[in-house]
Amino acid sequence: MSTLLHSRSRSRRDPGEFDDAGEEEMAGLSAKSDGPPMSKTRRDILHQQIRAIKDELGENDEDEDDVASLEKKMQEAGMPPNVWKHAQRELRRLRKMQPQQPGYGTSRTYLELLADLPWQIASEEHEIDLVAAKERLDSEHYGLSKVKKRIIEYLAVRKLKPDARGPVLCFVGPPGVGKTSLASSIAGALNRRFIRISLGGVKDEADIRGHRRTYIGSMPGRLIDGIKRVGVNNPVMLLDEIDKTGADVRGDPASALLEVLDPEQNKTFNDHYLNVPFDVSKVVFVATANRMQLMPAPLLDRMEVIELPGYTSEEKLRIAMLHLIPRVLEQHGITSEHIDIPEPTVELIIQRYTREAGVRNLSRHLAALARAAAVKVAEKDQSDRHTREMQTEVTQMIDHGGGGLIVEGAEVDMEVEAIGVQRQGSLPLAIKPEPLVVDEAVLEIVLGPPKFDGREAAERVATPGVAVGLVWTEVGGEVLFVESTAMLGKGDLHLTGQLGDVIKESAQIALTWVRARSAELKLPVAEAGSLMKERDIHIHFPAGAVPKDGPSAGVTLVTALVSLFAKRSVRADTAMTGEMTLRGLILPVGGIKDKILAAHRCGIRRVILPERNRKDLQEVPAPILMNMEIILAKRMEDVLHEAFEGGCPWKPATSRL
């Protein structure tokens, strides 16, 4: 009786107690595993019990199959020995975890990353054909001879020594000059895959090095993630907008890039998420930037800077005719049979609607013309389709010998006689659609009134106290007007136009120099000390919403002040740039080519430059120099002598080109 009760109590045991008993039995079996080998029958019985236990727990063998397939994938990845040892340790840890545990998904995602990385996979490189590479660069980019020459040199070294540690090329220039497409051309010449990583606005160091796996939502950095997506360990990687990175409490991404771009360190690049070294020395890094002044000096030291200045009007015309117009027509589904944009019209667009260093705005205006033509073509196509449908209905009525006509509620049968009508097929359209010929009138209809004309400089400089300066910005060279005026006051200097500290100091230096030399300049004042007596000077830089800074406006400020005090207007065809010292010396400045191109776009034909910038004129296209008068000045007196009609009271020795 007691035996029966004991068996019933065992049968009524809770499922949890049964599970605990099964675990105790399994533990006992594992403890006995050190004994003699078990028989095949005993092993099958144990497997059946394990399957029964997993069925009661709601588990199956799919997870085991996934882990086995993951292990096989990791074995085929070709990891280095030290990485494989680390991966095996993580895999053993994963096997001991249940899928319901919180760390299971994180560990599995990490192992999948290790298996997906191209440890041994590389792009198959063919022998570099320098002639084909040069032809491709010429076909995809107009001009830029200096940049193309440097790229061919880079490819030649790669051809002679494929494993050479070449420099990291950094293309610096305004938007729309072809920096990104040049990097793509390098990838095509090397027969490597191309990947672009945008660094604009990146302020977290973890975007480069990755997050540690202890953080929630951790992920690898952009470099490792990009290499995983591209699938090879030797792609051409473009670090776009490298000058737009920032720094805050989360670290400095520019400092993290130092290890990436250093050929002595990137063999063992350590991503925080990956936590094992990965060799990125086979990656060809190319960077782009708009301004190299914003980049740290150590980062610039890792790269070779190649400047891409803006295009001239002639280069823009050739780019538009050879590249932009065919591409725009293809993008809008039309051909040259639907629209005709002659060269004189493109010149008008360049002169009156765009004043940029690149060609993006020019491409937008051409796209607007293409859209206007597309509307005309679509409307004509719809009208033709309606006409064909009507012709088909008339033909069907004629083929049937007549039809019914309802007149005032009564149906009247009438016979229609076909006279000179073709009954075979639909009637073809005899009139070929006329293309939209874009002329000046069409430009004003589609693009609106012209935004620029050649009279702006003459109108603004007609008043004394205004001078024309040249400055360099992120989008290329620009023409800057400096305005000054005098009023009753206490001898104060007022500056407006959202100016930086450097340009404010340049204005103070300019006023001091003019006051100190008012007698030599023969300004209409009784004595040198009375120049600012009972008057205030206000200097304004128009376009007040745009921040301005830099020392290159020094000579322009002095010229504007002398024009104000002498009541003489500055020549409207003259622009200038240069930094001035307190003693009147003219120091060299940067961006000479961009500034000269900006003056040329605005119709200014005389430019005053520092004497020590003579070497920079070699980069200016010869046709531009032939159409302009370049004046080189050593001192401020030289600038004043050339800026005014009739010259300056002093007689300097000025160099001309």
From TrEMBL:
Keyword Nucleotide-binding annotated: yes
Active site: 552, 595
Region (Disordered): 1-46
Residue ranges occupied by any Lon proteolytic domain in the UniProt entry: 461-646
Keywords attached to this entry: ATP-binding, Hydrolase, Nucleotide-binding, Protease, Serine protease
SUPFAM superfamilies found in the cross-reference section: P-loop containing nucleoside triphosphate hydrolases, Ribosomal protein S5 domain 2-like
Alphabetized Pfam families for the sequence: AAA (PF00004), Lon_C (PF05362), Lon_lid (PF22667)
Transmembrane segments: none
Acidic residues bias (residue ranges): 17-26
Annotated protein name in UniProt: Lon proteolytic domain-containing protein
Organism: Ceratodon purpureus
